Amino acid sequence: MQTIDQLISSERQRQTHSVNLIASENYVSEYVLRMLGTVFTNKYAEGYPGKRWYGGCEFTDVIEQHAIDLAKALFKAEHANVQPHSGTQANLAAYLGIIKPGDKVLAFRLEHGGHLSHGAPFNASGKYYKFIHYGVRKEDGLIDEAEYARLLKENPDIKLVVTGASSYPRAIPFARMAALAREHGALFMADIAHISGLVAAGEHESPVPVSDVVTMSTHKTIRGPRGGLILSKSSLASKIDRAVFPGCQGGPLVHVIAGKAAMLEEATRPDFKKYTKQVIANAKAMAAAFTAINAKRYRVLTGGTDNHMVMVDVTGTGKNGLEVEKLLGEQHLYVNKNFIPYDPRPNTETSGIRVGAPMITTLGAVEADMRKVVELIDKALSGENVSQQVQAMMQDLTSRKQAG
Ligand code: DSN
Predict the structure, then answer these.
(1) Domain 8-23+270-403 belongs in CATH node 3.90.1150.10
(2) Pocket flag, ligand 1, residue 26 (CB < 6 Å)
């Protein structure tokens, strides 16, 4: 076995030499990365700034308060909790804080692009709460708002509505969905794990003004360390804080909170807005390129994208999602197999792939690069070995970034 140091260096090489199109991943800046290796990892700090269960928290308090203030300002939120260890932890804490075990919750169906922490039977959310789900329309792949309204009407006991997705390429109509939930008397929660960077930069409708709670992970489009974050109305602040700690977590990861503060500082800068605009332009360029190459071979779900990802039905290639993921991975092109709505295949195979622009855009890719990436994918799936072309593309991106 390689030593741990060697494995880190191998992983660095892998990340530097592959075109990564996994929609939920990103490259953090050196600034964010540096925070994760600081002495704050040594510190216990159960509690919140000014109210800790340990001494020696004077610098921790300042860092955590800085992250809280930045998150509130960036998202125009009344309250922020920066302690959740992940997006799933953030969701579980939100449920613990605002509903009771056994309560009924309406959320987006996992098989249509939702998330396991939105009531999957094998997740704690599905075990402790009674989730029912809305999905997308078969004909156009868009959220079935009629089904959503019908389920609300038929289930007067719904206490919470959860919106947000892991594999949905279109804009989510938060205000419209929140208005119906409110009419119904339910709380409204948006999980913006995937689109948090786009929301922060004003490139996607923000759910913050219309939501009781907004959760997110911090390592996707917003380009921070692995972790979670919760925003809420101030009326729910103490319920959320108590649900995170002591409700479902012990000591916060102070070094990761420092990384979140660095991420939030970066997301406040004008170049972050430019980045998110380019992410969306790049995803759109990929969607158009797949369609232009062969719309039957690559069926782009919903006909395009509004965000950072493209969902592609690859049935027309004669391969399933798993086979495509493996074949591309062997040539250093990373995507992930993904269920498509109404997928006839099991989730271990799937009929689709999810292709994302956040990572390659961080390297400086623009629309022409994305068209080239799609060509490389098509060549690889047609049996050509494109490894060298992938390397050349990564070298080109790296030297352009160094020059720029
Ligand atoms: N695993 C994440 C994603 O890839 O979307 C969701 O948690």
Answers:
(1) yes
(2) no
